[in-house]
């Protein structure tokens, strides 16, 4: 079931990046990022109200985890920038490859206190095929 959700996430990310990039064409990068995050905040507030959930924070949350919001702003900015120069497919393909590389390092070393999932040499075949596909997309 979670693998199906992950594919659905990929579809949603594609729509999101496309809409974000188009919005940046109508406004500018910074106004688009502000609108995107304000709409996200409003959506989350509505969800919390509908679910009748209270805003609670646990104690002792590592401070670096709060940087995800800033990273999100940077990601949206770069996605918009790349989308308008490279198009949706190349922007998303290169982005997914970057995610794959970093996620493999995080898994292999158990970074950020996560469980360790050692990198298996068989995965190099998949990485190579993906890299070949990216090179093909860039050239053609």
From TrEMBL:
Presence of the UniProt keyword Ion transport in the record: no
GO CC annotation, single: plasma membrane
Signal keyword on record: no
Transmembrane segments: 5-24, 30-49, 61-78, 90-112, 124-139
InterPro entries listed in its UniProt record: YdcZ
Swiss-Prot/TrEMBL keywords: Membrane, Transmembrane, Transmembrane helix
Pfam families: DMT_YdcZ (PF04657)
Signal sequence coordinates: none
Lineage top rank: taxon: Bacteria
PANTHER family in UniProt: INNER MEMBRANE PROTEIN YDCZ (PTHR34821)
Record protein name field: DMT family transporter
Species name: Clostridium gasigenes
């Amino acid at each position: 079931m979670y693998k199906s959700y992950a594919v659905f996430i990929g579809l949603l990310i594609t729509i999101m990046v496309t809409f974000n990039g188009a919005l940046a064409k109508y406004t500018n990068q910074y106004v688009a990022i502000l609108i995107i995050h304000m709409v996200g905040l409003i959506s989350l507030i509505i969800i919390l109200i509908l679910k009748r959930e209270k805003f609670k924070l646990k104690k002792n949350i590592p401070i670096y985890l709060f940087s995800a919001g800033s990273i999100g702003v940077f990601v949206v900015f770069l996605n918009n920038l790349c989308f308008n120069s490279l198009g949706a497919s190349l922007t998303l393909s290169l982005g997914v490859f970057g995610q794959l590389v970093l996620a493999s390092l995080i898994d292999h070393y158990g970074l950020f206190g996560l469980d360790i999932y050692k990198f298996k040499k068989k995965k190099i075949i998949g990485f190579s095929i993906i890299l070949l596909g990216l090179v093909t997309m860039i050239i053609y």
